Amino acid sequence: MVENLQTTVPAKKKSRFPSSVPFIIGNEAAERFSFYGMRSVLTLFLVKQFFNPTDNPLLTDQANAHANKLHHLFVMVAYALPFVGGMVADWFTGKYKLILYVSIIYCIGHLMLATFDGGLSGFELGLLVVAIGAGGIKSCVSANVGDQFDATNQDLLSKVYGWFYFSINAGSMISTVAIPWTYEHFGPKWAFGIPGLLMALATLIFFSGRKKYVKVPPQGVNRNNLVFITWYALTHLSQRKPGQPILDIAKGPYDPERVEGVKAVYRVMTVFFFALAFWAVWDQCLSEWTLYAEKMDRVINLGFTQFTIYPGQLSTFNTIFLLLFIPFFNYVVYPWFDKRGLKTTPLRRLGAGLVLTAISFIVIGVIHTSLDHGGSPSIWWQVLAFLILSAAEVLVSITGLEYAYTHSPKSMKSTMSGIWFLVVSFGNLITAVVNGLIEGGGWWATNLKGANYEWFFVGFILVFIILFLIISPRLKERNYITDPYVDNKAAAEANSL
């Protein structure tokens, strides 16, 4: 008997990027310009326009705290929503529709910022709408890049992501130079209006590629995820057997492999907990630090030329240092320690990053002390703080993402990126709460006055460092890249939340 054999011919490899890629990259560059551009002047604008327009020294601390609180609440909302946006796209709308519709909401928010620059309630509503827009699309845009590739061009994906992240840095760097200059010379309407125009351009670019995208349809509600599995286990504790892990209760009605994946997520979240201290401090370089920069000697003298830098432009140094530090740490610092028997494990990098974060805030504390005593320190001191904080960002942020990827199974990698954004959100919530307490007066306003604010956060980070030293040796690690387990079902569901 002759069997009918079918031979599978490997698909021919493609050497060109999908035609949809330029639209996605152009959209991302313009969107990041809009987001970081408005943030570069946000805190300074809130103080000058609403909370202390007469520059009354008696109102300085409360006004700064109020502005910082609003800024960090804005960031909190923006980074809390990617987790939700990812689920909505995967389950109900698909990425294309969600990005398009939420981008329109995003544009409306920017329009409100430019329109209500003289009214606080309208401006606050605009901030909320922008946060919903920025957070709603955040987890979908980068995932949409991956959707454009298949087996014939998968080898080009890393190059495209390189261009994708280049567009992020290019958009943010240009905006943090241009928008503070615009604010100083043309006022808040243009400073908030131009980011709005760029967001409208981003939406138009994205819409222009509508016929070229690979559009992955929504898959419907997938109950084999962290939320449903955790909820089932917690609501069926009466079924728990002696010595049985709580999440194992869900192994009956839910896929056992996915339950094991949820366990891995919670192990990684233990490590993520320590990154809270970093994110509670990092975003202050775009809020509190700009207020200090305004009172410093901002003349940059390079010998052959000199110029004055605007407060909101200081964050440009963060982007520059990151672009320098990422290859420097990967190809110089880590190999140097590894060759000397001091292996730079993710946990060691995280711990070192927390130490550098504390040092950067010590530098800012010294700056604030000088300002409190009537001094006008050189802006190079804040550049030094950015240098140290950027090194900490490489050690904490990039390492955290790597740890999440390597220590979670394929089925949970999407979930982990959403949870990482939640860590950023909760870090900003901590800062918003502290500033809200200062704004309210009483003990917090009295004891965190002036440079005591920085020393409080230095102490806050030191508490996390001590906890890290106690807990990290006890953490059970499993690297799912070097020590994988059979995860066939999970691999098929890798893109689900």
From TrEMBL:
One of its GO terms (biological process) is oligopeptide transport. Pfam families: PTR2. Its main location: membrane. Belongs to the major facilitator superfamily. Proton-dependent oligopeptide transporter (POT/PTR) (TC 2.A.17) family. It is a multi-pass membrane protein. It comes from Mucilaginibacter glaciei. Keywords: Membrane, Transmembrane, Transmembrane helix, Transport. InterPro entries: MFS_trans_sf, POT_fam, PTR2_symporter_CS. This is MFS transporter. It is found in: Membrane.
